Amino acid sequence: MRPLTLADRDAVSALVREQPRQQSELTFTNLFIWRDAYQLQLSDVGGALAIFSWRADPEDSFLFPPLGESANADTVRRCLEHMAASGHAAVMPRATEQDLGRLGIAADQFAIAPDRDNWDYVYLVQDLIELRGNRYHRKRNHLEQFTSQHQFAYRRLTPDLVPSCRELQDRWCDDKHCDLVATLRAESKAVKEVLDNFEALGVTGGCVEIADGIEAFALGELLNPDTVVIHIEKANAAFHGLYQAINRQFLEQEWQHIGYVNREQDLGIEGLRKAKESYYPHHMVEKFTVRLQ
């Protein structure tokens, strides 16, 4: 077992592309920027790639669905047994139905349970650009309030804009007291990782500039040929409607040729769940947690 590094990008990305990617977690970008928070470790298990979250608190450890042609139910069993023998939680969350099928995970050998807090929200890109109909009435009002009160410009992320985005992230963290909340500290580090390495990771970014200052930014990439995944979206909450603006601008300027947008999971956070549901997802990417029987 060894830590994940940027040098693993091509090899891991090639394995990920072989699978019908649907869940937001299985991109190299997501794995890389959260590698420290999850304490990610890679291992070759019978020719398959196993990605472990090998945490300092063993109860927080988990296994991602293994990758590669040779990955199967025996791979999963060997990994979970190794975790259990090492005193870590023997669990594989975030597995889609496609993962269960390709790995041959059957209910007579494994305990399988829905992992609702990690289901991904997937929307039609055009729905979020156009915001048509009564159900998006409030979203349009927020957006119109912003556009009527502020002159702004959309700018694609380039290296010269990264310092301004980092500064916005620092201001956002000051407002949210990230220093007091471990999850927000980890998220802030992930945001800065993707900003600092967005070219090497092949991620597309977009910013909203107001009065010569960057006040919102978003970063995403193709998850599969039909779907873009949004990894990061940040805005200065002092500008009412700015989140609606960066959401729409980023999709309209960079991704309107793509059918769907995956905006990741709600993690069981009630407010986040309500916010994601308010945009009316086209469908959810259901995920399951797998344990040894």
How is this structure best described in words?
With 293 residues, the chain is an alpha+beta fold. The protein has two domains: 117 residues, 3-Layer(aba) Sandwich (Aminopeptidase); 145 residues, Aminopeptidase (3-Layer(aba) Sandwich), CATH 3.40.630. The protein has twelve helices and 14 strands. The chain has a seven-stranded mixed beta sheet, sandwiched between helices. Strand 10 and strand 11 form a beta hairpin. The mean pLDDT is 96.
Record the SSE blueprint.
Blueprint: E1 2-3, H1 9-18, H2 28-33, H3 35-38, E2 40-45, E3 48-53, E4 62-63, H4 73-85, E5 91-95, H5 97-103, E6 110-114, E7 120-124, H6 125-130, H7 137-149, E8 152-156, H8 162-176, H9 182-196, H10 198-201, E9 204-210, E10 213-224, E11 227-235, H11 242-254, E12 260-262, H12 270-277, E13 283-285, E14 288-292
Parallel strand pairs: 11-12
Antiparallel strand pairs: 1-2, 2-3, 3-4, 5-14, 6-14, 7-12, 7-13, 8-9, 9-10, 10-11
